[in-house]
Amino acid sequence: MRRRLLTGNQAAAWGARLSGMEYAPFFPITPQTEIMETLAGWIDRGELTGRLVTLDSEHSMVTAAGAAAATGVRVFTATSSQGLLHAMEMIYTVPGWRAPFVMVNVSRGIASPITLEPDHNDIMAARDSGFLQIHCATCQEVLDAILLAYRIAEHPRVRLPVLVNMDGFYLSFTREPVIIPDAALATRFVGAFTDDDTQFTPRTPTSLGVAVLGGTPYSYFRYQAHQASLNALEIFEESAEEFHTLFNRRPLLIEEFYSEDADIVFVMIGSFATKAKNAVMELRAEGWKIGLVRPCLLRPLPIHAIFKALTGKKGVAVIDQNLAAGRGGVLHGEITGALYGRPGAPPTITSFIGGLGGRDISGAEFREMAVVTHHAMERGETPPPRLLFTQAELASVRKMQATALGSHALPTKTQKGEGHE
Amino acid sequence: MNKPTIKKITDLSPHRLIAPGTPTCAGCGALAGVHQIYDILGEKSIFVNGAGCMTLLATYPFTPFKGSWLYTAMACASAGAQGVRDALDILMEKKRRQSDEAMQVVVLTGDGSASGMGLSATSAAMDRQLDFICICYDNEGYGNTGHQYSRSTPYGAKTATSTKGFHGVKKDLFAIWAAHKPTYVATVTAAFPLDLAKKIEKASKMKGPRMFIMLAPCPPGWHFDPPHAVNMGKLAVNTGIWPLKEYIDGKVVHTLIPKKRVPVEAYLKSQGRFAPLFLPGNEGQIQAIQAHIDDYWALVPPS
What we know:
The structure holds 2 protein chains of 2 kinds.
Chain A: E1 2-6, H1 8-18, E2 23-26, H2 33-44, E3 51-54, H3 58-71, E4 76-79, H4 81-86, H5 88-93, E5 102-107, H6 121-125, E6 132-135, H7 139-154, E7 162-167, E8 176-180, H8 183-190, E9 207-208, H9 215-247, E10 254-257, E11 264-267, H10 273-285, E12 290-295, E13 297-299, H11 303-310, E14 315-320, H12 330-339, E15 348-353, H13 363-379, E16 386-387, H14 391-409, H15 411-415
Parallel strand pairs in A: 2-3, 4-5, 5-7, 6-7, 11-12, 11-14, 14-15, 15-16
Antiparallel strand pairs in A: 1-8, 6-13, 10-12
Helix pairs in contact in A: 1-2, 1-7, 7-9, 10-13
Chain B: H1 29-41, E1 45-49, E2 68-71, H2 77-93, E3 104-110, H3 111-114, H4 119-127, E4 132-138, H5 173-178, E5 184-189, H6 193-204, E6 209-215, H7 219-222, H8 229-238, E7 244-248, E8 251-256, H9 264-269, H10 283-298
Parallel strand pairs in B: 1-2, 1-3, 3-4, 4-6, 5-6
Antiparallel strand pairs in B: 5-7, 7-8
Helix pairs in contact in B: 1-6, 2-4
């Protein structure tokens, strides 16, 4: 066991290394590339045995990952944003192959406009694919989640790929102290890749991904993958328990932060939830009974744990770092759906959109969200989803627009040749 | 062991490894070729398929193959082959597979995929010198969706989306693939089973990318009656519009040079898809196609 300063990307690479990854099909994309480079460096220096192959696209990369896992080796890969979307056809396909492997997504906003900084619209596009999803808030969680993910993915009752998500820049390029587990303990925890489902051999020929005709066999296989995903809840819990025994840290289904006695609870996923923690402490100092609930596992959705954490609350403010155009926040829909109609469900569940493309969420905004939620509770009326954006931001965009128009508006200035180029 | 065992037509197996009763169309030129290929490669193979007509060969709960099958998607069969090949190599290295469990990884793709969205993944597989066999069955259109034109459709052919005849030029996939300098590239067609068998057997004993383009006469897409499928393949070769050749060691060698080429009009006339070429006012187009073929063969050194 060692403690080291690692970026989220390096922590991900360590997670793959300690899990005994054998095969890593890759394609570079910011802000993920450091994961691939770290693994490649280890392999080149002989510190890691494993085969890293650069494919021609993320679509090919996920195909190769699924095909290799289905054949019988432990596979690791990673992507981000446009890459995840480019691969989307295969993201939906390989869970049906029941191919267990782990893929890290380093969240980044998606075009248009094209950007590099994080939000969760990329990972939300994979929400219903059949991949399981673990969302991390710290670099330590990234490493731990990968070990845990292999355990769950390869479990005979699951056999599904897992996406481990971290926020680009905020985690991928931020150094945090990370405990690197002892390699032998990690090997013991993850175990050997099961050869029970050995496929594509001359002795056990296999047909995989075959066509079906009609809705009956189609529904049968789709339902099977769904049931396997639900099985992962139980496997998560028992694996987390063993993780705790071996490493003295417990991976959580959901994190509950000062929520037990709270009237109002923020609900967020990912690293921006640490901003909410800060706000909770500040608001509590002022007398607010407020807390945070952070789902760590999003697929399968731990409905019972979420309900248990939120039951009896007067108000819940769901802060989505994504925007479902024409609707609002994806997480808000998930949480309200999980709670609706249950006795003791919070009567008020407000919706806020923030942190798009890496936009900060300030302490003042957390306070405002608490106030809006409080008013909604008092009035018994829930306002429509609110898009966080300040007057100062609007002014800054207006300034950019003026700059963009500047060359047309003031042709004489550029003609003088001052400072251009 | 590496000497060819197939020298004459009677060396070919009289038995079929692929089971009958597949859902392909009557007279399918692609299935005829896949039969012949599978008899040689055998069940120690995994066929990695991209979306196309052959995708329906394995339809749950049936498969005609004695060996393995993996359906991927339209653009990525060669990437699937990469994953399988790499995994098999790793398993062999780590002795998690016995040495007698060696397998051929075979991509089976149509021309629509091979000349379009599958080109990137296949190009990259050749770049990486992937040890695989790639078979493009070329029925010269998007056959499985009702035969719209693909970039492999020949000039003048009527398709569901070129009802007055296709005005593009058939993409030269052989040249594109050969430009990657893979181990082997060959054209074949089921009407010449000995030529096909010799090439497949030769390729099966090589390593690296071994690429095949197989002309697949298609009764519904080309508008001819199923019993004439073999004749279509023969005419294609004997008119010189489908040269049988191979690329090996950096050189292109023609494996069958017609002694006297049949005028291409005979080939064009036999298929309803070329009917637009025979409409009044289009006479020059058939001459242009013939001239194109003659120009091609003028550059081929005699064997």
